[in-house]
Amino acid sequence: MTETPAPVADAIRLIFEYDGDDVRLISQQPVDVAVTGFDAHADVRAGRYAEVRDADNRPLTRVPVRTGDTRSAEVFPENPGEPITRVDVDRPSGAFTVVVPAPAAARNIALIDIAAPAPGTAGARGAEPPGEGQDRSPDASDITEITSFAIEGRGGTQ
Known about the structure:
Elements: E1 11-19, E2 22-31, E3 47-53, E4 59-64, E5 72-75, E6 85-88, E7 93-101, E8 108-114, E9 143-150
Antiparallel strand pairs: 1-2, 1-7, 3-4, 3-8, 5-6, 8-9
């Protein structure tokens, strides 16, 4: 009798904490939810992404990470009726969550930043042919890996 492998989760919820530029993974939890419409096609916009990778570290899917405005904070007034204001924060800190698809081939996840193209380059706004959008193919110099980790129970590498 052969053993049936344990079912693979459809998705993984990742919880991160950040303090200034330091970002660390706090938790990864398998979740039974469909995350559709994401793939690792070459055309992406500048921003922060959670990139799901296979055992050879090839990208499988890439999900945008939304952390909100971390360089300022809302300050609530002491007296009712006064306006809520925003103040700059020297060292932003907090947490964020992202849910990524977890196909069977997924072994590792990386948190990456993709830089906006420099003005006057092929991917920069105004430099592309008319009708082209801001999507572009990033090269390796555009991508900064913030952190990476193995998916628990999948035998990935760190």
